[in-house]
C-alpha cells in the first residue's frame, strides 16, 4: 500500500489544479487520480475492484436467471 500512496502523492501534486492554472483538463485528471486512490487505498474496495476485473459480468448476472417460457 505504501507504493500506491507514494504514487498518489506524486501524481496529485503534479496534476493539482492549483499548480496548473488555466488548464481545465487537469481537473479531470486530478479527479481520476483521487477516485483511483479512493479504491486502491482501501483494501476492501481494492478487493472488490480486483474481483470485478477478474469477472466483469458478475454484477450483471443478478439472481434471477434467464427466465423463459
From TrEMBL:
Keywords: Chaperone
SMART domains listed in its UniProt record: DnaJ
Keyword Chaperone: yes
Keyword Cytoplasm: no
Domain J: 1-53
CDD domains: DnaJ
Protein name: J domain-containing protein
Species annotation: viral metagenome
Amino acid at each position: 500500500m505504501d507504493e500506491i500512496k507514494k504514487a498518489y502523492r506524486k501524481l496529485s501534486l503534479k496534476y493539482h489544479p492549483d499548480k496548473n492554472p488555466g488548464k481545465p483538463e487537469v481537473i479531470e485528471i486530478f479527479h481520476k487520480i483521487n477516485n483511483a486512490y479512493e479504491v486502491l487505498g482501501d483494501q476492501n474496495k481494492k478487493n472488490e475492484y480486483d474481483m470485478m476485473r477478474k469477472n466483469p459480468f458478475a454484477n450483471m448476472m443478478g439472481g434471477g436467471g434467464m427466465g423463459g417460457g
